[in-house]
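thread from #wetlab-drylab

HS: before we spend reagent money on co-crystallization trials with zinc ion, can we at least see a predicted complex? here's what I'd submit
DV: go for it
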Amino acid sequence: MRPKPPTTHLRPIGAFLTLVGLLALAGCTERPAGLDGVAFAEAPVLFITIDTVRADHLSLYGYARPTSPFLVELAADAVVFERAMAQSSWTLPSMLSLFTSLEPPALGVHDGVRPAPRRGGGKPAREEVEIEVFADEHLMLAEALREAGYTTDGVSTNGHLIARQGFTQGFERFDESGCMWGGADCALGRALEILEGAPTTSHFLWVHLFDPHFDEVGAPPTYRPPASHANLFDDDPALDARGATVRDYDRKLRGLDDRLRTFFAELAAVRDLDSFLVVVAADHGEEFHEKGRWGHSKAVTNTLVHVPLLFRLPGGAHGGRRIESPVRLLDVAPTILELLGIDRPPAFQGTSLSPALRGGRARVPTVYGETRRAGRSLHYWVDVERDLKLVVDRNDGRRRLYRFTDDPGEERDLAATEPELVDELADRAAALIEALDLEPGAVPEALDEAARERLRALGYL
Ligand SMILES: [Zn+2]
């Protein structure tokens, strides 16, 4: 038995360790090899994605309200990416990009679900939808893991992340009905059941949590925090209507964070947490009318594409570090595989972040993302070296240019004063789109009444 790395001993022991690390601190586990050129071979992987989390609304990223005290504690033993960028501003393309490590134009999925056009024109029929089904020939993270001998489990709470859309490739078991559109109580309860009975090595569990997402579409949308958190952050009597809406969203974030704390404590009672590679990410953020819009999917502002991302390596190795350089969600899958010593599929377009986790720099020179949903079409392109973000609205042709890190709120458009930079970045983004763009694969399919109504309530139809 070897002791945990000294960095762990020197850090203050947070509540996370107090709750979940007693077994590990007692020295029951050997620190897995790794980060010295040797992968965390066969480590169990717990991959949690959370719907609709703005990085800048988490106290993990400096937000004033304590929305994520558990994630803050988890980060003491994790490596946190300060600027993780989603490749789209809504669930399906973002999560497909994450699981395939493909740039969004290579996915062939843009709308996901939409009303079916009537033959001969006319208004779409409310009872018919077309579904873009993700092509089977792409290799997804769960498939690569399964080919390497992993047992793969998935728990979905989002109706876009299901077998019908082609999302479940590589999962041996996929729970997409029990907790659909439900809260973390259901999904994390299911996750705990799975982990209690799962192999202690070569096991992959992905859980998607839906909680922060709005409950009803609208302007503003309705966010319903759990009853236990309905009076949280109640110290500002002067809140206007917008502020009250945002507070409800923040309450939902805190409700989820508290539920995650309970889950990890329960998990530590039955499994050795230090054996796990834990990855936490979100699919996209949310707009709170900063630019006149609510919700997500309609733009590619930082409020929508700047998401949380952290890796808790086995043994808590390199914990407490924060990586400032921008990285992409499409880099997550190659990173997980490299950490486990599994060859990356040749089709993967992302870059492994393993060097950054080891203490080096993230080597991601450019970041691309887009949304093409319900008639809206925009993309963004970040030149990391020059700290520039270009946003192209393909509906009206307008191009905007921002200092990426200096102006996170994207309030100072430099396009008029830097036309040559705009042209150059626009050409580079256009070349990527041209090289990768696929026709959407639309398959007409009728949805049952309940699914249709839920998608309509959330604004997808
Ligand atoms: Zn989402």
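DV: The chain has one domain: 6-33+43-365.
HS: ok that's useful, forwarding to the group
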